[in-house]
Task: structure prediction
Amino acid sequence: MSTMTKMYDVAVCGGGVAGCAAAIAAARSGMKTVLIEKQCILGGLATSGLIYIYLPICDGKGNKVMGGIPEEMLKRCTAYSPFELPEAWGGPVNGDNGRTHKSKIRYESCFSPAGFSLVLDQMLAEAGVDLWLDTMMTGCEKDGDRLTALYAANSSGTIKIAAKCFVDGSGGAFLARHAGCRIHTAENFVTPWVVEVSSHRTSMKVSGDVDIRTFGTFNENFSFPACASGKDVTGFVRNSWALIREYYDQLPPEERKRNFPLQLPAMPQLRKIAAIDSFHNIEDSDCETHFPDSIGVAGDWRGSLTTVWETSFGALVPRDVKGLFAAGRCIGSTGSAAWEIFRVIPAAAMTGEAAGTAAALCVKSGCSTHELDVKLLQKTLSANHCQLFYPFFNEG
Ligand SMILES: Cc1cc2nc3c(=O)[nH]c(=O)nc-3n(C[C@H](O)[C@H](O)[C@H](O)COP(=O)(O)OP(=O)(O)OC[C@H]3O[C@@H](n4cnc5c(N)ncnc54)[C@H](O)[C@@H]3O)c2cc1C
Result:
């Protein structure tokens, strides 16, 4: 098979929430944009990993902290699902966002993983993104320290995708790693989420007898070191399967006829894989701190916590490589609380939109990713309804 070459303004690796947001933002900015995804479903961990909660885009005190694509995705993710946004955020009276606790008033919602993938496909098509599914990035080419092309494999053979700027939305910084970026890693624990046919309500009643069940909580016996190798990932996934089997094995035979797994996650449910070494690796001390170069705000989604985090643009920019931005859970967010805040769906959409917009501005102005005028990026994001700063710091 031959190697064909394709040329784009912006190339995005990974069709998770972050990669989709980045590709949509770049294409809406007028860029000829390609998105490559190794699976045949969009949304990454949020959909093929069977995650079903679009965590809040508010601060827990009644204030919205994200606009732009994260808000657009939240509003649209319920389209093919039984869920609706809370009334306080524009949903119907008595709308049920699927959340049973007090966060019913938070700006968040459950969604159907399959339904969300269909919505993302619509959004990419509307923006004019050239989407390549079943296409896996396998390597890259550089000119000095600048990324100039990536290599991808699919049933046509090997494709060289040359672009003026790249976004890594691969979840594990896989493109950045191929390009020689240093990375940070962290520990993972196993809590498998599975679609099951169930006679009783477990975690989420999708409809009728179908639930998404979450298994287990943090357990040191199931804690895994940073998953750098393919064999580690195999061990992690098989451990999840063992936990699931253990649950169904202890059910009485009659009950097993009415309660059984229907779908396993198609992606390893690793929360943290790798974060790029960036110009601003977000630390826990960055919580509730104002950053003049902020490109977006993330609210704390954990329980009743209501801290708020501005996001320094430097977290999206790898130190070691030019021509590349990171988006989603592989941005330079390395503090243990910080990575928790920034690895989830709304923050992935927020950093994705910023990375795609930044890539488009680099192409338009002909500047390097290390020299982009942050004020210009902020002006563009603001014009697209993104919220850059949190106005209520120090108000107690
Ligand atoms: C058990 C668990 C529960 C969670 N619960 C929630 C929750 O309730 N709410 C929430 O908001 N978040 C939750 N999260 C986190 C959240 O789902 C993810 O962190 C988020 O969706 C990450 O998005 P992303 O786009 O950065 O990365 P990913 O979703 O990892 O997307 C990366 C994409 O890149 C693709 N890709 C990777 N390598 C290549 C390659 N070489 N070539 C081509 N494509 C490639 C992948 O197939 C994937 O589609 C949970 C995570 C876990 C593990």
Notes: The chain has two domains: 1-186+272-389, 192-263. The two ends are 64 Å apart (CA to CA).
